[in-house]
Amino acid sequence: MVPAIALTIGGSDSGGGAGIQADLKTFLALQVHGCSAITCVTAQNTCGVSRVDALPPEALTAQIEAVLSDLPVAALKTGMLLNSALIEATAQALAPLAIPRLIDPVMVSRAGSVLLEPEAIEAYRQRLLPLAALTTPNIHEARLLSGEAVEGAVDVERAAERLLELGPQAVLIKGGGLAELRGRDYLLQRSGTGQWLTHAPVDTPHSHGSGCTLGAAITAELAKGQALLEAVQTAKDFVRNGLAKGLAIGAGQGPLCHWHSLL
User: What is the widest separation between alpha-carbon atoms in the chain?
Assistant: First the structure.
């Protein structure tokens, strides 16, 4: 058996709910072999993040090169990159690749926690977004990257247009950060018109890692050869089912369940 192979570039979550851990669980659940390149190590649990340590950019580059020199990666995603040096190292490694590249601009969590050094925002705009087959910001990140005040559906559509001008082939703005847009995400492709993708929202406090999981599921489906729209729809279904069986572990916000298809 030769499975499709996907690569995730991002941060380690010691609590196992988001980041590299969530991505690899998602790849496995969708029957894709997952590889990883770690950008930073976080000390976190269901109650929050207490420490973040960035790896040297040379260490990140070495990880990416080790994977790509041996394994036929069919698609990749980026997650938490933290600073300009790691963004630059990632951009240099990704630029020559002719595979789908999903850029999840992890800057602010859906709850509002800042996960990126301020000066790195422009590095995202200039270096990574032009390389993206798809970028997947949440509401907070869409505001930062587009410069738009995103407070409703019309603002989301306007922000997506601004982001598309920065160079990605498609933009998916996740609406979960606004109460009126729960369950709704806006997809705008350079090759077509924008469309709202909707599913019934799931009422659960246990949604940690849902953004990472969505991006990883899209990446897995792209690695298997699905077209972008179908990959996004499959990924949304995967996340919704995981939220419906969210894990009530720890004293805080638990993660969604990545093995829900086995239950």
Answer: 49
